[in-house]
Design goal:
With 440 residues, the chain is an alpha+beta fold. The protein contains ten helices and 17 strands. α7 packs antiparallel against α10. It binds FE2/S2 (inorganic) cluster and fe (ii) ion.
Length: 440
Amino acid sequence: MENRQINFFKSKDFNTVLKPFKKGTVVKIDSLDIRENQNELKIGLFGWYAICPSTELNKNKLYYFSLYDEPLVLYRDENENIRCIKNICPHRGASFFGGTLSDGVITCPYHGAKFSSGGSCQNLDRITCSHIVDNNYDNYAKRIHLYQYKALEKNGYVFVYFSKKSETDLNNIREDSPISNYELSDNGFSHEDYVFEEVLVDFKCDWSRIIENHLDILHLFWVHGDTIPDKDVNKNVLVSFNQKINVTHKYIESIYYYKNDPTKEFIRIKYIPPGRILIYKGDPSLSRYLQVLDHIPLGDNKARVIVRHYRKFLKNKLLNNLMLFKENQRKIFYKIFDEDYMILKTQTFNHNMGFISKDEIKLLGEDRIINYFWKWYKKSEDKDEPWKNINNTQNLNVYDKVILKYPPEIKKLEIINNIDIVRKTFLRFAAPLIFFLLVI
Ligand code: FES
Ligand SMILES: [Fe+2]
């Protein structure tokens, strides 16, 4: 593996903030918190994003979402392949919301234009009066074509390669980073060895804030100490760690060892830009547990997180079902999201309002991976400008209701999960008992 350890400043207090206060504004970066090195993480925010679990895409269903506020649609074509198109009809710019999908043909709800899965319009005569456009008919016809991004299915996720430049011909899209960077097998895990449970939650807060939160182990003890079922993670426990950071072109990895037992690993966090974080312990091929966190920048102050926990133990289906393991685990996920949510929202607000100035933020020595992240983020934002031309009149964003799934403040999914737990507990334990009592 090509990597190296970074040597950090001795200072305990970096006294710096690298997050831009407002999208597009320039913020001074304190130089050299981390020494520059040859293996610096590749700069850029465009690349493959895991958008949703692939089970979300059913036959003939249009799945709405957005990336950096660009409205997009996912669906399966007639061959079950995943398609990602701009949610803008190339005829007169209507959304496909309210339109239909049938065997890979999508129909616009405004004038009924039908588009094949290749993207060409199938019924031009329906939307043109040929006597009006006679002279230019061929040119006109060519322009009526769906704009698309590359999309595929991998490890049970739907991935989209986003670059803000959708194309009518997918062959024109060049990938800067391969999908293999995100694959579990390329990261040393064989996912067949695991069972997993997952949740998908959309937050009304800044995307990069959530990544920061997931790179931050310090808050685990305090914010989630009562929720995480690990006796070492507790409000009243004070643990000191040695930290080692490896950087390659593809990822940055932070490994925490117990200070009082330097060979014993507490946890390692691997950030694979733009949106994936892996959390596990030790050698991936031996790790009993893997957490995969995907972060999706739906838009300005709108971000999605998909959390998947892979576990080697509890592969026994019967035991798993009896213990209602997935349902109970989901309950913990929701609680953790809730615990973070208010903090994330208020941080986002404080930054966007410019209330936090450089002097008021103090990253500590322990926050070095966060410091590295913000430095990388700023450079990446400057390079790709994904937020450019974003209209700040967010109250005009009609897509929110269509795309946002289970925002934590709406407890619907949590309630459904709780009802599920009660129902299944009754069926598994109480019902056979009642039956037995009735028989005797
Ligand atoms: S806007 Fe879609 S068919 Fe006219
Ligand atoms: Fe958290």
